[in-house]
């Protein structure tokens, strides 16, 4: 037998063994998820992440929990004042909301800080005292108002800030940006508002029974691709330029709202995805807006759910607190 034929034979055997191993990984990963268990082994963990992200297990949705949100004519929905219990495979949480946002504990005296953002700022997957807003309040000794709301883009976040009644109580606004904010920042008009309203409050279509064979094939495909997808995601750095181009007009539109405030923009992306060209320091067009990369990484995020762990929130709070000690940017006239 020629050397080439032997190599081909070994290659085919390796493929067969890899395929068989992937089948085992898929089966074990799925059963573990159904039992609400996570497996901290690379191939299994990456497969569970794909299964979790793509709906192969039931995943809680904060927006769908009765009593957690209520309609709002300008913002589509806002958190209901009171308590909302929100649990998932990796966490068990209780969220408390007041008229001034998610609870950060008793407010110290003095001029405060407003935090706006989406689920990362709101504190998806952590309890009230664990959010970076609550920890920043403890570190700084200043009142911090957590106005973050899951699924908001910057456009709605600034409207919520305007309606919150806390603007006269703060001299600093921290904006948590996320890569899924871009679509809303590009378009938040009557049509998009109606589409969002219908998605959240519209009638639910009758569930369609899953095609089990197709679901099995899809899940097996995730297991086959998991090691390569995981490596690709770990090396990938997103381009911030199109996000910047969509974000700045929104901030410009609300220039008067933010006048006289120190505005600090940082990002928290799903699973700790990084930008390769995030700005640093004061913006050239809005001098009171500053950009800072807190250096959040995948290690600061949960393995299945895409949000920060309590330790990740602590890291964000500590780095924001340190940054707040630096000289503020030159304020606008």
Give a structural overview.
Helix content is 42%, strand content 16%. α1 (3-34) packs across α2, α1 (3-34) crosses α8 and α4 (132-140) crosses α11 (310-324). A hairpin with a 3-residue loop joins β1 (69-72) and β2. It folds into two domains: 3-58 and 211-238, no CATH class; 62-192 and 239-324, Rossmann fold. The protein has a six-stranded mixed beta sheet, sandwiched between helices. The chain has helices at 3-34, 42-53, 119-122, 132-140, 154-164, 182-186, 190-201, 212-235, 241-253, 255-258, 310-324, and strands at residues 69-72, 76-79, 82-87, 92-98, 101-102, 112-116, 144-146, 170-177, 237-238, 262-267, 274-275, 281-282, 289-291. By secondary structure, the chain is α/β, with parallel strands linked by helices. It is globular and about 80 Å long. The mean pLDDT is 93.
* Biggest β-sheet description: 6 strands, mixed
Please report the total strand number as a whole number. Answer: 13
**Amino- and carboxy-terminal Cα gap:** 82 Å
For the biggest β-sheet, the strand order reads 7-6-8-10-13-12
Corresponding CATH superfamily of the largest domain = SGNH hydrolase
